[in-house]
Specification:
Layout: H1 2-21, H2 29-36, E1 41-45, E2 51-58, E3 64-68, H3 79-85, E4 90-94, H4 112-125, E5 131-136, H5 138-149, E6 154-160, H6 168-171, H7 179-184, H8 187-193, H9 199-209, H10 218-229, H11 233-242, E7 261-266, H12 277-283, E8 287-292, H13 299-302, H14 304-318
Parallel strand pairs: 3-4, 3-5, 5-6, 6-7, 7-8
Antiparallel strand pairs: 1-2, 2-4
Length: 323
């Protein structure tokens, strides 16, 4: 018993030392917001669900699409697409709870269901009766849930290197190549995660996400870094990763999706391996695919021209206007 007691005490001591050595304080929300708010930024007050940052761009009367970013990312990831879509469509991007300039929310609820609720509240606020919904990585899993929860609102579904609910192995897909995601699954790391400097983890995570390393600029790294340090965000991240698995839907529920679906995937994805794409192909009835050689986890930033063209073709087809 004494040996176990000493081991526990030593472990606590080492954790404390690590936290002190690697300590990095938060950046005030107003400082971060001033850096990353654009002329198109808007905010929607949703009470316990937070002050949600979003952008509503493009042609207001055109077919709408809502795009959802991945874990630890922000709506900025879709900027290369927005510039290519806005002449043809209405494009809504959102910082999901615990991310970007939405950040920590009063309820502390960062479940997939809470995120679906935020999307639904915003869609209603904007008067979007029917729309295409799409998401990258974690955002893809939220888009899936939205399509299952609100099938009558969805005219199309876009899954981009998407995580989902296809069994334990698939649920853990988005931790494959990112050290921070693996560590965040451990309580001992979460105990110090909200105070340590995340720069190395941000840099390593982005290098894992992109196959073409030239895409990873210092400007990109610093944006992710600043947003991670926004007051309250690291604490929200620790809470999000400590949540129990969401078992609302199972693999077989994908067969319920009737909306036309576009599956996009980088073949060199080191975060959610390309092998997972076949599961979606098999299970979702009305699905088409766009796969990219030499591309990693985030095609909209790595090959924006090609991937945006595929999305435009899909949008025009489901809206009755083939190229």
């Amino acid at each position: 018993m004494k040996l176990l007691k000493y081991f526990i005490l030593i472990s606590i001591f080492l954790l404390g030392c690590s936290a002190i050595i690697l300590f990095q304080g938060d950046i005030p929300t107003d400082v971060v917001d001033a850096r990353y708010t654009s002329a198109d930024s808007q905010f929607l007050e949703l009470g316990d669900l937070g002050r949600v940052h979003y952008r509503d761009e493009g042609r207001r009367q055109a077919p709408p699409i809502i795009l959802l970013h991945g874990s630890n990312a922000s709506l900025h990831t879709f900027e290369p697409w927005v510039t290519r879509l806005e002449d043809k469509f209405r494009v809504v991007t959102i910082d999901l709870p615990g991310h970007g300039l939405t950040g920590a929310i009063p309820s502390g609820n960062y479940s997939r269901d809470a995120m679906v609720q935020v999307v639904h509240e915003l869609a209603n606020k904007l008067g979007l009766e029917h729309f295409v919904i799409g998401g990258n990585s974690m955002g893809g899993s939220i888009a899936l849930r939205y399509a299952l929860d609100h099938p009558k609102k969805i005219t199309g579904l876009v899954l981009i290197d998407s995580s989902g609910f296809m069994g334990k192995r698939f649920q853990n897909a988005d931790s494959q190549g990112v050290l921070a995601f693996r560590l965040l699954k451990n309580p001992w790391f979460r105990a110090i995660g909200e105070v340590i400097d995340p720069y190395y983890f941000v840099s390593q995570g982005l290098e894992a996400a992109f196959h073409q390393q030239a895409v990873v600029t210092e400007t990109m790294v610093m944006r992710y870094y600043d947003l991670a340090l926004r007051q309250g965000t690291r604490k929200a991240t620790m809470k999000r990763f400590s949540a129990t698995d969401d078992e609302k839907y199972q693999t077989q529920d994908l067969a319920q999706i009737k909306a036309p679906t576009l599956l996009m995937w980088g073949k060199e994805d080191a975060v959610a391996p390309f092998a997972f794409a076949s599961g979606y192909e098999t299970l979702i009835p009305s699905i088409s695919t766009a796969y990219y050689d030499g591309v990693g986890h985030i095609p909209m930033e790595e090959v924006p021209e090609i991937s945006a063209a595929d999305l435009i073709a899909f949008m025009e087809k489901i809206n009755g206007k083939d190229k």
